[in-house]
Amino acid sequence: MITHRIQIEKKVLNENQRIAADLRRRFEESGTLVLNLISSPGSGKTSLLECTLACLPRSTRVAVLTGDIQTENDAQRLQRFGFLVKQITTGGTCHLDARMIERAIASWDLDDLDLLFIENVGNLVCPSSYDLGEAAKIVILSVTEGEDKPLKYPSIFFKSELMVLNKVDLLPYVPFSVAVAVENAKRTHPGIEVILTSCTTDYGLNGWLHWLDSRVTTARNSQAVLV
Amino acid sequence: MITHRIQIEKKVLNENQRIAADLRRRFEESGTLVLNLISSPGSGKTSLLECTLACLPRSTRVAVLTGDIQTENDAQRLQRFGFLVKQITTGGTCHLDARMIERAIASWDLDDLDLLFIENVGNLVCPSSYDLGEAAKIVILSVTEGEDKPLKYPSIFFKSELMVLNKVDLLPYVPFSVAVAVENAKRTHPGIEVILTSCTTDYGLNGWLHWLDSRVTTARNSQAVLV
């Protein structure tokens, strides 16, 4: 039975990979930068998106897909900024998959989008196995979670281009060494970039917005080459 | 293919249930209280166990099984208290299952154990689907994670007898209402008990130890009835 299970899992992941590759081609052709945000529950994905949407110039055409097992709370929090926001409620599934993304954007014209954030289900394990056609995965780690997480959950840190180390305003109150956390992340993935942020004090948000801007520009330029 | 996948998932869960039922019978016959601790990564499961092992009288015969995807860090942290500790490294699997528990305790004499803590993989979603033969599931939520978590991850709050609301020493620094979190937990599971704790200030640890003591006594008395 274990062999059957592995075969089925492989089929599911292959099917996911096929849809993700198709999504990636579409995103690249439209010049839309797609970022897949992954973290534990409560690391501040939605808060980071709130700060981001509040700061982005209205000329940047942005959308958010936000995944949760239950509730539409996150979509409600994000809708007030006037950008396109859609909730994906998985009903129990512990991750988003490429088919869910394909369905959610079915009625959208990607040519009208510069930037699409996908806020995954809060889970540091399962979402790392599912390609959503994104240009990059971003892992968010809050300083309250402990500096050992990149070693204990290596897959998502290995696959992410950027680690956002969030809630740094709480550093005075928790036993957490930024140096050790960064060292652990780099040990798992030497090329990972790191940005420190706090959504309550706005610390580091300029660096984050600069990173985004640079990646949006790259996506646009790559599209020009494709066209 | 989806039908095949569901059938395989059902078989896996049925097989897990069969082993879990056997484990539960063995735990009840030996009068061993088994608690399955589930939370997000970094909510403080290991810290709570450190405080607990430091406080428990040496006459209480305790063991810990601690689950992680990678590293033996948690077992190393817990071994210094002199109780029986074993690490289960899942190598990628996002939860513990009953077969892993069965294997881990194969060489143990359960009659020598009053209390077995199972520290699950840090994941608020998948572990809730796998019965490990425990007497009770306990969900740990830290106040840095947000008061909406019982609504967004209802399954584990519904299945847990107790919510330990941890890191309450950080309440002055985070936007978190204990009343709203408890209301959300009770809305998901009206019968859930709640204990507030801080492992850095020892707040609430007496209440937690009292809860444990009362449950250990119940397990022993139930065994007497069985015998």
Looking at the overall shape, the CATH architecture of chain A is: 3-Layer(aba) Sandwich
Largest sheet of chain A: 7 strands, parallel
Q: How would you sum up the global shape of chain A?
A: globular
The end-to-end span of chain A amounts to 49 Å
Portion in beta strands of chain A: 15-25%
- The first-level CATH class name of chain A: Alpha Beta
Number of helices of chain A: 8
Structural class of chain A: alpha/beta
Name the pair of protein chains with the most residues at their interface, and give those residue counts: A-B, 41 and 41 residues
Spans of chain A of at least 5 consecutive residues whose pLDDT stays below 50 are none
How helical, in percent, are the residues of chain A?
A: 40-55%
